[in-house]
Amino acid sequence: MRLLFILATTLGLTACASVPHADEARRACATLVAQKTNAEVRIESVYALSTTELAVTAYPKLAGSQAIQCRYDTGSDSARLN
Known about the structure:
Blueprint: H1 2-10, H2 22-37, E1 41-48, E2 53-60, E3 68-73, E4 78-81
Antiparallel strand pairs: 1-2, 2-3, 3-4
């Protein structure tokens, strides 16, 4: 079971619900990326970097789009692009 968890984590399949403030981070980063790209956004993963900062990987739904990294600060409830 542990091997399956490690594999899932490596592939970015970790459940976002296990990270506190993941829903807020997903919404804030999806909104920010959508405003920047004028496209729908798919959130790939949410990882805790510290107790107050989350990393979010987002993909605009555009042909050939690459991942966009976003950081979410839980203290200020704000998102920024890397």
